[in-house]
Amino acid sequence: MPDLDIAVLGAGPAGLMAAIAAAEAGARVAVCEQMARPGVKLLATGGGRCNLANTASADEVMARFGRQGRFMAPALALMDGPKLRAFFADLGVPTHAPDGFHVFPESHSARSVLDALLGRAEALGVRLLTGTEATALGREGVETSRGAIRCSRIVLATGGKSYPALGATGTGYTLAARAGHRIVPPVPGLVPLVTAERWVARVSGVTVPEAAVWIDLPKRRGARSRGPLLFTHRGLSGPAVLDLSADAAELLAGGAPVPLRVDLTPGTPAEAWAARFGAWHRQHGRRLVRTLLAEHLPASLAAELCRLAGCGDGVRAAEATAAQRRGLASALACLPLTATATEGFGHAMITRGGVALEEVDPRTLESRRRPGLFFAGEVLDLDGPCGGYNLEWAFASGALAGRAAAAGGPR
Question: What is the C-alpha separation between 136 and 145, in angstroms, rounded?
Protein backbone atom coordinates (compact mmCIF):
# COMPACT_ATOMS: atom_id res chain seq x y z
CA MET A 1 0.00 0.00 0.00
CA PRO A 2 1.48 3.40 -0.93
CA ASP A 3 2.48 5.81 1.80
CA LEU A 4 -0.14 8.35 2.80
CA ASP A 5 -0.32 11.58 4.74
CA ILE A 6 -3.49 10.75 6.66
CA ALA A 7 -5.41 7.60 7.54
CA VAL A 8 -9.01 8.21 8.56
CA LEU A 9 -10.49 5.40 10.64
CA GLY A 10 -14.23 5.10 10.04
CA ALA A 11 -16.34 5.84 6.95
CA GLY A 12 -19.30 7.41 8.70
CA PRO A 13 -20.29 11.07 8.37
CA ALA A 14 -17.41 12.32 10.55
CA GLY A 15 -14.82 10.16 8.82
CA LEU A 16 -15.93 10.92 5.27
CA MET A 17 -16.07 14.64 6.00
CA ALA A 18 -12.60 14.49 7.55
CA ALA A 19 -11.25 12.72 4.48
CA ILE A 20 -12.81 15.28 2.15
CA ALA A 21 -11.52 18.24 4.17
CA ALA A 22 -8.00 16.80 4.31
CA ALA A 23 -7.93 15.93 0.61
CA GLU A 24 -9.21 19.39 -0.32
CA ALA A 25 -6.20 20.74 1.58
CA GLY A 26 -3.89 18.63 -0.57
CA ALA A 27 -3.26 15.63 1.68
CA ARG A 28 -3.02 12.05 0.46
CA VAL A 29 -5.81 10.26 2.34
CA ALA A 30 -7.21 6.79 2.84
CA VAL A 31 -10.32 5.83 4.81
CA CYS A 32 -10.41 2.49 6.61
CA GLU A 33 -13.86 1.05 7.29
CA GLN A 34 -14.34 -2.27 9.08
CA MET A 35 -17.76 -2.87 7.49
CA ALA A 36 -18.13 -4.18 3.95
CA ARG A 37 -19.84 -0.94 2.92
CA PRO A 38 -19.29 2.68 3.99
CA GLY A 39 -21.87 4.84 5.77
CA VAL A 40 -24.18 2.03 6.88
CA LYS A 41 -25.31 3.87 10.00
CA LEU A 42 -25.74 7.13 8.08
CA LEU A 43 -28.21 5.39 5.78
CA ALA A 44 -30.36 4.55 8.81
CA THR A 45 -30.48 8.04 10.30
CA GLY A 46 -33.84 9.74 10.54
CA GLY A 47 -35.58 6.59 9.39
CA GLY A 48 -33.59 6.81 6.17
CA ARG A 49 -34.55 10.46 5.63
CA CYS A 50 -31.33 11.84 7.17
CA ASN A 51 -32.05 14.75 9.51
CA LEU A 52 -28.55 16.12 8.94
CA ALA A 53 -28.82 19.44 10.81
CA ASN A 54 -31.30 22.01 12.10
CA THR A 55 -31.85 25.74 11.92
CA ALA A 56 -30.60 26.51 15.45
CA SER A 57 -27.74 28.99 15.75
CA ALA A 58 -24.28 27.79 16.76
CA ASP A 59 -24.82 29.14 20.28
CA GLU A 60 -28.15 27.33 20.53
CA VAL A 61 -26.57 24.09 19.31
CA MET A 62 -23.79 24.32 21.90
CA ALA A 63 -26.33 25.01 24.64
CA ARG A 64 -28.23 21.83 23.79
CA PHE A 65 -25.04 19.80 24.28
CA GLY A 66 -24.88 20.88 27.91
CA ARG A 67 -21.96 21.99 30.02
CA GLN A 68 -19.36 20.73 27.53
CA GLY A 69 -21.01 22.34 24.53
CA ARG A 70 -18.48 25.20 24.24
CA PHE A 71 -15.92 22.60 23.17
CA MET A 72 -17.72 22.63 19.80
CA ALA A 73 -17.16 26.34 19.08
CA PRO A 74 -14.14 26.03 16.72
CA ALA A 75 -15.73 23.22 14.72
CA LEU A 76 -19.04 25.07 14.37
CA ALA A 77 -17.19 28.25 13.39
CA LEU A 78 -15.73 26.26 10.50
CA MET A 79 -18.95 24.45 9.55
CA ASP A 80 -22.21 25.45 11.21
CA GLY A 81 -25.66 24.59 9.91
CA PRO A 82 -25.79 27.13 7.06
CA LYS A 83 -22.27 26.24 5.89
CA LEU A 84 -23.11 22.54 6.01
CA ARG A 85 -26.19 23.13 3.88
CA ALA A 86 -24.11 25.14 1.40
CA PHE A 87 -21.55 22.33 1.29
CA PHE A 88 -24.19 19.79 0.32
CA ALA A 89 -25.83 22.18 -2.14
CA ASP A 90 -22.47 22.45 -3.92
CA LEU A 91 -22.44 18.65 -4.12
CA GLY A 92 -25.89 18.62 -5.75
CA VAL A 93 -27.84 17.80 -2.59
CA PRO A 94 -30.10 20.76 -1.80
CA THR A 95 -31.69 20.77 1.65
CA HIS A 96 -34.81 22.18 3.23
CA ALA A 97 -36.48 22.49 6.62
CA PRO A 98 -40.14 21.56 6.05
CA ASP A 99 -41.11 22.33 9.66
CA GLY A 100 -38.84 25.34 9.95
CA PHE A 101 -36.33 23.52 12.18
CA HIS A 102 -35.27 20.00 11.11
CA VAL A 103 -33.06 20.06 8.00
CA PHE A 104 -33.33 17.21 5.49
CA PRO A 105 -32.06 16.68 1.96
CA GLU A 106 -34.85 17.64 -0.41
CA SER A 107 -34.77 14.05 -1.62
CA HIS A 108 -35.53 12.88 1.95
CA SER A 109 -33.03 10.14 1.22
CA ALA A 110 -29.93 9.41 3.27
CA ARG A 111 -28.60 7.63 0.21
CA SER A 112 -28.29 10.93 -1.65
CA VAL A 113 -26.19 12.34 1.22
CA LEU A 114 -23.90 9.31 1.34
CA ASP A 115 -23.50 9.17 -2.43
CA ALA A 116 -22.54 12.84 -2.51
CA LEU A 117 -19.88 12.33 0.18
CA LEU A 118 -18.46 9.25 -1.53
CA GLY A 119 -18.48 10.96 -4.92
CA ARG A 120 -16.61 13.98 -3.60
CA ALA A 121 -14.07 11.81 -1.80
CA GLU A 122 -13.45 9.77 -4.94
CA ALA A 123 -13.04 12.90 -7.04
CA LEU A 124 -10.37 14.08 -4.61
CA GLY A 125 -8.46 10.83 -4.85
CA VAL A 126 -9.35 9.51 -1.40
CA ARG A 127 -8.78 5.76 -1.15
CA LEU A 128 -11.64 3.84 0.48
CA LEU A 129 -10.62 0.58 2.13
CA THR A 130 -13.70 -1.35 3.25
CA GLY A 131 -13.55 -4.55 5.25
CA THR A 132 -10.44 -3.10 6.89
CA GLU A 133 -10.36 -2.94 10.68
CA ALA A 134 -7.73 -0.84 12.45
CA THR A 135 -6.07 -2.98 15.12
CA ALA A 136 -3.31 -0.72 16.46
CA LEU A 137 -1.97 2.80 16.14
CA GLY A 138 1.74 2.57 15.42
CA ARG A 139 4.37 5.30 15.47
CA GLU A 140 4.62 5.19 11.69
CA GLY A 141 1.00 4.54 10.83
CA VAL A 142 -1.85 2.13 11.42
CA GLU A 143 -1.91 -1.64 11.70
CA THR A 144 -5.02 -3.07 10.07
CA SER A 145 -6.58 -6.44 9.39
CA ARG A 146 -5.23 -6.11 5.83
CA GLY A 147 -1.72 -4.99 6.68
CA ALA A 148 0.10 -1.82 7.72
CA ILE A 149 -0.66 1.67 6.43
CA ARG A 150 2.22 4.12 6.65
CA CYS A 151 1.06 7.64 7.42
CA SER A 152 2.08 10.60 9.56
CA ARG A 153 -1.34 11.52 10.91
CA ILE A 154 -4.49 9.65 11.93
CA VAL A 155 -8.11 10.79 12.32
CA LEU A 156 -10.05 8.51 14.66
CA ALA A 157 -13.72 8.69 13.59
CA THR A 158 -14.90 5.20 14.48
CA GLY A 159 -18.11 6.25 16.23
CA GLY A 160 -19.41 4.96 19.56
CA LYS A 161 -21.22 1.76 20.52
CA SER A 162 -24.76 2.55 19.38
CA TYR A 163 -26.24 0.18 16.77
CA PRO A 164 -23.30 -2.27 16.82
CA ALA A 165 -24.88 -4.20 13.94
CA LEU A 166 -24.22 -1.11 11.81
CA GLY A 167 -20.53 -1.04 12.66
CA ALA A 168 -20.36 0.96 15.90
CA THR A 169 -18.53 -1.58 18.03
CA GLY A 170 -16.49 0.73 20.25
CA THR A 171 -13.14 -0.21 18.74
CA GLY A 172 -12.13 3.44 18.72
CA TYR A 173 -12.23 3.53 22.50
CA THR A 174 -9.74 0.67 22.67
CA LEU A 175 -7.42 2.38 20.19
CA ALA A 176 -7.64 5.70 22.00
CA ALA A 177 -7.05 4.10 25.40
CA ARG A 178 -3.93 2.37 24.09
CA ALA A 179 -2.75 5.77 22.88
CA GLY A 180 -2.98 7.03 26.47
CA HIS A 181 -6.43 8.60 26.52
CA ARG A 182 -8.94 8.38 29.34
CA ILE A 183 -12.26 6.95 28.21
CA VAL A 184 -15.42 8.16 29.95
CA PRO A 185 -17.46 4.95 30.41
CA PRO A 186 -19.92 4.71 27.49
CA VAL A 187 -23.66 4.38 28.10
CA PRO A 188 -26.53 4.27 25.58
CA GLY A 189 -28.09 7.59 24.58
CA LEU A 190 -31.27 8.47 22.69
CA VAL A 191 -32.53 5.04 23.70
CA PRO A 192 -35.93 3.75 24.90
CA LEU A 193 -36.30 3.09 28.62
CA VAL A 194 -37.63 -0.04 30.32
CA THR A 195 -39.98 0.58 33.26
CA ALA A 196 -40.87 -1.45 36.32
CA GLU A 197 -44.57 -0.70 35.72
CA ARG A 198 -45.98 -3.41 33.47
CA TRP A 199 -49.29 -1.65 32.77
CA VAL A 200 -47.50 0.29 30.00
CA ALA A 201 -47.68 -2.85 27.83
CA ARG A 202 -51.49 -2.50 27.75
CA VAL A 203 -51.13 0.88 26.02
CA SER A 204 -48.20 -0.14 23.79
CA GLY A 205 -48.15 1.89 20.60
CA VAL A 206 -50.03 4.84 22.08
CA THR A 207 -48.45 8.22 21.36
CA VAL A 208 -49.03 11.42 23.32
CA PRO A 209 -48.25 14.30 20.92
CA GLU A 210 -46.77 16.56 23.62
CA ALA A 211 -45.58 15.45 27.04
CA ALA A 212 -42.99 16.56 29.59
CA VAL A 213 -40.72 14.04 31.30
CA TRP A 214 -38.20 14.54 34.08
CA ILE A 215 -36.03 12.52 36.45
CA ASP A 216 -37.53 12.78 39.91
CA LEU A 217 -34.32 13.18 41.87
CA PRO A 218 -32.80 16.20 43.68
CA LYS A 219 -30.91 18.49 41.28
CA ARG A 220 -32.53 16.71 38.30
CA ARG A 221 -36.15 17.87 38.50
CA GLY A 222 -35.54 21.17 36.73
CA ALA A 223 -34.35 19.50 33.53
CA ARG A 224 -37.55 18.62 31.69
CA SER A 225 -37.64 17.07 28.26
CA ARG A 226 -40.66 17.86 26.10
CA GLY A 227 -42.01 16.33 22.93
CA PRO A 228 -43.95 13.32 21.68
CA LEU A 229 -44.09 10.36 24.07
CA LEU A 230 -44.53 6.75 22.94
CA PHE A 231 -45.55 3.86 25.18
CA THR A 232 -43.87 0.56 24.29
CA HIS A 233 -44.31 -3.06 25.37
CA ARG A 234 -41.54 -2.59 27.91
CA GLY A 235 -41.60 1.10 28.79
CA LEU A 236 -41.25 4.48 27.14
CA SER A 237 -39.81 5.99 23.97
CA GLY A 238 -40.33 9.04 21.78
CA PRO A 239 -38.33 12.29 21.81
CA ALA A 240 -39.57 13.33 25.27
CA VAL A 241 -37.90 10.24 26.74
CA LEU A 242 -35.00 9.81 24.33
CA ASP A 243 -33.58 13.25 25.13
CA LEU A 244 -33.13 12.39 28.82
CA SER A 245 -32.33 8.71 28.35
CA ALA A 246 -28.55 9.17 28.54
CA ASP A 247 -28.95 10.91 31.91
CA ALA A 248 -31.06 7.98 33.07
CA ALA A 249 -28.52 5.51 31.67
CA GLU A 250 -25.72 7.13 33.66
CA LEU A 251 -27.78 6.84 36.84
CA LEU A 252 -28.82 3.26 36.05
CA ALA A 253 -25.15 2.35 35.69
CA GLY A 254 -24.92 2.97 39.45
CA GLY A 255 -27.23 0.01 40.01
CA ALA A 256 -30.39 1.70 41.29
CA PRO A 257 -33.71 2.29 39.49
CA VAL A 258 -34.40 5.83 38.30
CA PRO A 259 -37.69 7.52 39.28
CA LEU A 260 -39.42 9.40 36.47
CA ARG A 261 -42.38 11.75 36.32
CA VAL A 262 -44.50 12.40 33.26
CA ASP A 263 -46.81 15.34 32.58
CA LEU A 264 -49.17 14.07 29.91
CA THR A 265 -50.75 17.47 29.28
CA PRO A 266 -48.14 20.23 29.74
CA GLY A 267 -49.82 23.56 30.36
CA THR A 268 -52.72 22.03 32.26
CA PRO A 269 -51.70 21.63 35.91
CA ALA A 270 -53.26 19.14 38.30
CA GLU A 271 -55.38 21.90 39.88
CA ALA A 272 -56.95 22.70 36.50
CA TRP A 273 -57.74 19.03 35.93
CA ALA A 274 -59.28 18.76 39.40
CA ALA A 275 -61.50 21.73 38.62
CA ARG A 276 -62.51 20.16 35.31
CA PHE A 277 -63.39 16.88 37.05
CA GLY A 278 -65.53 18.83 39.49
CA ALA A 279 -67.42 20.32 36.55
CA TRP A 280 -67.88 16.85 35.07
CA HIS A 281 -69.20 15.68 38.45
CA ARG A 282 -71.85 18.39 38.36
CA GLN A 283 -72.65 18.66 34.66
CA HIS A 284 -72.00 15.22 33.11
CA GLY A 285 -72.74 12.96 36.03
CA ARG A 286 -74.17 10.06 34.00
CA ARG A 287 -71.21 9.79 31.65
CA LEU A 288 -68.25 7.49 32.38
CA VAL A 289 -65.09 9.20 33.59
CA ARG A 290 -62.94 7.23 31.15
CA THR A 291 -65.17 8.31 28.24
CA LEU A 292 -64.92 11.97 29.20
CA LEU A 293 -61.14 11.70 29.61
CA ALA A 294 -60.87 9.98 26.22
CA GLU A 295 -61.87 13.30 24.67
CA HIS A 296 -58.44 14.59 25.75
CA LEU A 297 -56.20 11.50 25.56
CA PRO A 298 -56.10 8.24 23.57
CA ALA A 299 -58.93 6.05 24.85
CA SER A 300 -56.79 3.12 26.05
CA LEU A 301 -54.50 5.46 27.98
CA ALA A 302 -57.47 7.29 29.48
CA ALA A 303 -58.91 3.98 30.68
CA GLU A 304 -55.58 2.90 32.18
CA LEU A 305 -55.15 6.19 34.05
CA CYS A 306 -58.65 5.84 35.47
CA ARG A 307 -57.78 2.37 36.75
CA LEU A 308 -54.58 3.70 38.34
CA ALA A 309 -56.63 6.40 40.10
CA GLY A 310 -59.18 3.86 41.34
CA CYS A 311 -62.06 4.98 39.15
CA GLY A 312 -62.15 2.09 36.72
CA ASP A 313 -64.18 1.24 33.64
CA GLY A 314 -67.68 1.60 35.12
CA VAL A 315 -67.31 4.71 37.30
CA ARG A 316 -69.57 7.60 36.26
CA ALA A 317 -68.56 11.22 36.76
CA ALA A 318 -71.17 11.71 39.51
CA GLU A 319 -69.82 8.65 41.36
CA ALA A 320 -66.12 9.62 41.38
CA THR A 321 -65.02 10.55 44.88
CA ALA A 322 -62.91 13.60 45.66
CA ALA A 323 -59.94 11.32 46.35
CA GLN A 324 -60.36 9.59 42.99
CA ARG A 325 -60.55 12.93 41.19
CA ARG A 326 -57.40 14.14 42.94
CA GLY A 327 -55.62 10.88 42.08
CA LEU A 328 -56.57 11.15 38.43
CA ALA A 329 -55.48 14.80 38.25
CA SER A 330 -52.12 13.83 39.78
CA ALA A 331 -51.70 10.96 37.30
CA LEU A 332 -52.24 13.33 34.39
CA ALA A 333 -49.84 16.04 35.57
CA CYS A 334 -47.25 14.02 37.51
CA LEU A 335 -47.47 10.34 36.53
CA PRO A 336 -44.86 8.27 38.42
CA LEU A 337 -42.88 5.65 36.51
CA THR A 338 -39.64 3.86 37.31
CA ALA A 339 -36.86 3.23 34.79
CA THR A 340 -35.06 -0.03 35.53
CA ALA A 341 -32.97 -0.33 32.35
CA THR A 342 -32.48 0.99 28.83
CA GLU A 343 -33.07 -1.02 25.68
CA GLY A 344 -29.28 -1.11 25.29
CA PHE A 345 -26.78 -0.09 22.64
CA GLY A 346 -28.60 -2.17 20.04
CA HIS A 347 -31.47 0.33 20.17
CA ALA A 348 -29.49 3.49 21.00
CA MET A 349 -29.08 6.24 18.42
CA ILE A 350 -25.93 7.65 20.03
CA THR A 351 -23.41 6.94 22.77
CA ARG A 352 -22.71 9.08 25.82
CA GLY A 353 -19.11 8.82 26.95
CA GLY A 354 -15.91 8.28 25.01
CA VAL A 355 -12.59 10.09 24.71
CA ALA A 356 -12.34 12.66 27.52
CA LEU A 357 -12.52 16.17 26.08
CA GLU A 358 -9.88 17.71 28.34
CA GLU A 359 -7.32 15.55 26.53
CA VAL A 360 -8.24 16.94 23.09
CA ASP A 361 -7.50 20.44 21.75
CA PRO A 362 -10.86 21.90 20.65
CA ARG A 363 -9.11 24.26 18.17
CA THR A 364 -7.85 21.34 16.07
CA LEU A 365 -9.33 18.19 17.67
CA GLU A 366 -5.76 16.91 17.99
CA SER A 367 -4.80 14.72 20.91
CA ARG A 368 -2.99 16.42 23.76
CA ARG A 369 -1.50 13.02 24.57
CA ARG A 370 -0.26 11.94 21.17
CA PRO A 371 0.67 14.46 18.46
CA GLY A 372 -0.64 13.53 15.04
CA LEU A 373 -3.76 11.80 16.37
CA PHE A 374 -7.06 13.62 15.75
CA PHE A 375 -10.64 12.80 16.74
CA ALA A 376 -14.02 13.44 15.13
CA GLY A 377 -17.64 12.60 15.87
CA GLU A 378 -19.17 10.23 18.35
CA VAL A 379 -15.90 8.74 19.60
CA LEU A 380 -15.56 11.91 21.70
CA ASP A 381 -17.44 12.37 24.98
CA LEU A 382 -20.02 14.76 23.56
CA ASP A 383 -23.67 14.06 22.75
CA GLY A 384 -26.77 16.08 22.02
CA PRO A 385 -30.54 15.59 21.79
CA CYS A 386 -32.73 14.42 18.92
CA GLY A 387 -33.18 16.76 15.99
CA GLY A 388 -30.06 16.74 13.81
CA TYR A 389 -27.70 17.94 16.53
CA ASN A 390 -25.45 14.89 16.63
CA LEU A 391 -25.14 14.55 12.87
CA GLU A 392 -24.30 18.25 12.57
CA TRP A 393 -21.54 17.74 15.16
CA ALA A 394 -20.23 14.73 13.24
CA PHE A 395 -19.89 16.75 10.04
CA ALA A 396 -18.45 19.84 11.75
CA SER A 397 -15.90 17.90 13.80
CA GLY A 398 -14.90 15.88 10.77
CA ALA A 399 -14.28 19.04 8.75
CA LEU A 400 -12.13 20.54 11.51
CA ALA A 401 -10.16 17.38 12.24
CA GLY A 402 -9.48 16.75 8.56
CA ARG A 403 -8.36 20.29 7.84
CA ALA A 404 -6.17 20.43 10.96
CA ALA A 405 -4.60 17.05 10.20
CA ALA A 406 -3.74 18.18 6.67
CA ALA A 407 -2.13 21.34 8.05
CA GLY A 408 -0.06 19.38 10.54
CA GLY A 409 2.69 18.33 8.15
CA PRO A 410 4.96 15.33 8.62
CA ARG A 411 5.59 14.29 12.21
Answer: 10
CB 154 within 8 A of CB 7: yes
Contact predicate 135/147, CB 8 Å: no
Q: What is the pLDDT of residue 64?
A: 95
Question: How do residues 168-184 score in pLDDT, each as one tens digit?
Answer: 889 999 999 999 999 99
pLDDT in tens, 114-153: 999 999 999 999 999 999 999 999 889 999 999 999 999 9
Residue 143: CB partners within 8 Å, gap ≥ 6?
134, 135, 136, 137
Residue 270 and residue 1: Cα distance in Å, rounded? 68
Low pLDDT (below 70) residues in the chain: 1-2, 409-411
Residue at 138: amino acid letter:
G
Q: What is the pLDDT of residue 411?
A: 40
Alpha-carbon distance 18 to 10, whole Å? 10
Percent of the chain with pLDDT over 70: 99
